[in-house]
């Protein structure tokens, strides 16, 4: 079948992670994504964190599959003209340059609209337009700090408990995913109005959107004075004194208390753990699984509120129960009782996970110069579309092809090469 986004042409003026993650997603679903890169070097991730000399790094290949690449120096007059032609003919321009870079290149939103009123201009910046930090350049961890993730992640007491960064790309890929939703919405809007529009997502906003539950807790804390679901309750109430949502360690802070628990081998294996959730209505099955039937009727344990003062003891009991079981054995026991839990999986285990391979969530992709590489496929599954992941392009691999499609003659293209425009 033809892919749903077939026919949508995207100028991919993105680099590093936030923008490329967005355009890669759209390319999987059928959009023709043309990555525009600076001649000579291209996206900085081609050469960052290389594992093979002179070959595109995994950092690049894992974020730029299914795209075509052209080189174009958009600071030259000829380069600007080529970009103008692309803007006139394409549907979407996506960029995540530093603040003001596109304007300095001569492509203000006003100019873009003059060239093509139907074009959708999608943009990622660290902070939103008009924000008092709008001039700042931003990378992942900066956004995690500015968006509330760092202040609410990690441990809350002791010398080694500063605000903590998540390894998940909450600032980068997450922002790209928000932008993709914005682009698809603007495309549907354009079908109704015939007009393009500017779609902007700031990394701070995208992180904050994922910290919604922590903003919920901040307001509850200000009203009630403490947060019952946090591990500080009820033995460390001083943690709530300043009325700032505290870090909760491995507690979810939601309605279901949970914790990371040691399994057999934790002394030597840093990932021999499971996450265990004490789901309210699964309390009786939990008691059955642990062989603690007396907890089912003891008023000190029968309700979530009654259990909270004993939550450490409950987790210690579960840990004692699983201390001679591997994380997989422990989960196999608890799953029979319908208890929400999972092993802590390492990257090594995930890379080799048969179910993820089978579902296409991890795929092996042949590549012209690196042999083949593994990458993460579409996390979105459809009944009528199986996104096929193809290799990321070499730098400028499609320059001549795309310029030809734009109507440039072989001679003109040769001249562009000779003077370094492409
Ligand atoms: N031809 C000519 N010039 C080009 C070009 C091309 N094809 N592509 C980029 N450039 C130029 C830009 O015009 C800009 O020039 P100028 O600053 O002289 O006007 C220059 O390259 C650098 O762009 P910039 O985006 O500022 O790169 P940087 O390496 O200094 O900063 C970031 C990198 C990620 C910090 C910055 O781009 C940023 O804050 N982006 C927005 C937030 C974001 O997406 N961050 C996370 C990325 S994962």
From TrEMBL:
Residues at which substrate binds: 254-256
Recorded metabolic or biological pathway in which this protein acts: Metabolic intermediate degradation; oxalate degradation; CO(2) and formate from oxalate: step 1/2
Active-site residues annotated for this sequence: 172 (nucleophile)
GO function terms (MF aspect): formyl-CoA transferase activity
UniProt keyword annotations, A-Z: Transferase
InterPro entries documented for this protein: CoA-transferase_III_domain, CoA-Trfase_fam_III, CoA-Trfase_III_dom3_sf, CoA-Trfase_III_dom_1_sf, Formyl_CoA_transfer
Reactions performed catalytically: formyl-CoA + oxalate = oxalyl-CoA + formate
EC number(s) per entry: 2.8.3.16
Family label: Belongs to the CoA-transferase III family. Frc subfamily.
Protein name, per record: Formyl-CoA:oxalate CoA-transferase
Organismal lineage: Bacteria, Pseudomonadati, Pseudomonadota, Betaproteobacteria, Burkholderiales
């Amino acid at each position: 079948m033809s892919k749903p986004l077939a026919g949508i042409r995207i100028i991919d003026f993105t680099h590093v992670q936030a923008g490329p993650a967005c355009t890669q997603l759209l390319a999987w679903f059928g959009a023709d994504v043309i990555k525009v890169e600076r001649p000579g070097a291209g996206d900085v991730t081609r050469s960052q964190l290389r594992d093979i000399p002179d070959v595109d790094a995994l950092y690049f290949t894992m974020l730029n599959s299914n795209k075509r690449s052209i080189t174009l120096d958009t600071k030259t007059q000829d380069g600007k003209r080529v970009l103008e032609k692309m803007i006139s003919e394409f549907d979407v321009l996506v960029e995540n340059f530093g603040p003001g870079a596109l304007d300095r290149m001569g492509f203000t939103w006003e100019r873009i609209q003059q060239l093509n009123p139907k074009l959708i201009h999608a943009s990622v910046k660290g902070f939103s337009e008009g924000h008092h930090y709008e001039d700042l350049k931003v990378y992942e961890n900066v956004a995690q700090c500015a968006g509330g993730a760092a202040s609410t992640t990690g441990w809350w007491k002791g010398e080694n408990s500063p605000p903590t960064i998540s390894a998940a790309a909450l600032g980068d890929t997450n922002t790209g995913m928000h932008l993709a939703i914005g682009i698809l919405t603007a495309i549907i809007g354009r079908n109704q109005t015939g007009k393009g529009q500017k779609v902007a997502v700031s990394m701070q906003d995208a992180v904050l959107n994922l910290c919604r539950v922590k903003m919920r807790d901040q307001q509850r804390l200000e009203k009630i004075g403490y947060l019952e679901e946090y591990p500080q309750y009820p033995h460390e109430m001083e943690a709530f004194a300043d009325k700032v949502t505290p870090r909760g360690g491995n507690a979810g802070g939601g309605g279901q208390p949970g914790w990371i628990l040691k399994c057999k081998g934790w002394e030597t294996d840093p990932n021999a753990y499971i996450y265990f959730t004490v789901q309210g209505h699964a309390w009786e099955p939990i008691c059955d699984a642990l062989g603690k039937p007396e907890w089912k009727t003891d008023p000190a344990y029968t309700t979530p509120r009654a259990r909270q003062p004993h939550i450490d003891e409950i987790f210690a009991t579960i840990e004692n129960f699983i201390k001679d079981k591997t994380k997989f054995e422990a989960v196999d026991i608890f799953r029979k009782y319908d208890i929400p839990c999972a092993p802590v999986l390492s990257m090594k285990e995930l890379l080799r996970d048969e179910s993820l391979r089978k579902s296409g969530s991890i795929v092996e992709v042949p590549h012209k110069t690196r042999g083949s590489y593994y990458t993460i496929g579409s996390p979105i599954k459809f009944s009528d579309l199986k996104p096929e992941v193809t290799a990321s392009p070499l730098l400028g691999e499609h320059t001549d092809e795309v310029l030809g499609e734009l109507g440039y003659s072989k001679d003109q293209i040769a001249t562009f090469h000779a003077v370094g425009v492409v």
